[in-house]
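Lab channel / #folding
Pinned by the channel admin:
"Please post every new chain as: sequence first, then the structure tokens as a reply. Keep commentary short and put observations after the output so the thread stays searchable."

First post following the new format, from NK:
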Amino acid sequence: MKKSLFALAAVGAFTGAAQAQSSVTVYGTLDAAVTQATNKYTATGAVTTQTSRTTANGDGALSTSLFGLRGTEDLGGGNRASFVLEYDLIDIGSGGTGANVESKTSANTLINGTANANTVSAAGFGARQSWLGLSTSMGELRIGRQFSVMHSVFMAGSAGAGNNMAGAVYSSGTNAAVNDASVRPYDVFIDRAITYRAPAVSGIQLELQGSAQYITSGETVAATANSQIGAAVTYTGIKNLTAAYSMVKVGINSVTATSGDTNLTTHVVAANYNFGPVQAFGNWSTRTLDWASGANAAKTTNSEIGFRAPVTPTVGLWASAFTGQRSSGLTNAATTTVALASGQADTKGFQVGATYAFSKRTTAYGIFGAQEIKGKAAQTTAKVSSEGLALGLRHTF
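Reply from TO:
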């Protein structure tokens, strides 16, 4: 109740809208850490090293710093309207460049040589979620910028809970420097998404998602278009067990693509089981890029296992490790920076972390992780690696 009252006061500029809501809540996370990241690129005996040290990095190592509003309105008859409006707090107090990490585009989105336009980066606020929803007895429909259906599935199998440090499949960076060794298989947020969440039946819940964009820039210029379809199934019918599967396929039709149309498909299977003293996690993912001709351009497959254990009521530990393979036939500049102009490579990484809970909302933590992509056969001298260390404090409200 206090949160709701505070929210109504804090958003006085939207008084008319707030009064129409059954409830409006302000929420957020502030996460600041001292971090050190080291990234290395090795080829033909030469090593290029980038090291970054940052104090009070405000984008968050354990969790992304964010500010949000959520609200619901009772429409009667069991129906409900809802909304979420959420922003990153990027590099607050760090004096940095505001380069984004977790919440925007992963490094391997550059796998076809073009960056995902689903990105906003600058010191200050960065776009996260902004959607409207309608719930009935038939399920819930959401429209707007949202989490990919794959995100919640992948988190079910992540011992590190999607932190922003190197060493996990989810990691897209060390939070202090670009991580070329990224293996994240999906984009966290989807623009212009329409998502349907079916009611849970016997512990099984189905989620469907789609988005599309078509733009013409002139009568004599070919149109650019991209679309996505995705689905996720989550099962929680057995006590202590969560298992989930998700598939997302992205079609890209762009005049700038190296070899015409492309199709990007990701599959993820994840699960966790709480044994009591230890909770076990596991996930398997494959990300495949194909040209419209059917020729394979690149593929990355990874498997990760981990555990999380409460040592005391206030101290928790986790550890995880992954291994996998990547193949690529690409020859553009975007892939040469990750030692994969062509051929095969091995991927691996590990991460350990600890938390100390001062209260339900304030937590101190330490995280260390490392990962690499190393070429095989003719590419045995080519390798990219990244490691990061963070000591920080997180507060949620």
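NK: The chain has a mean pLDDT of 78.
TO: also worth noting, The chain has one domain: 2-396.
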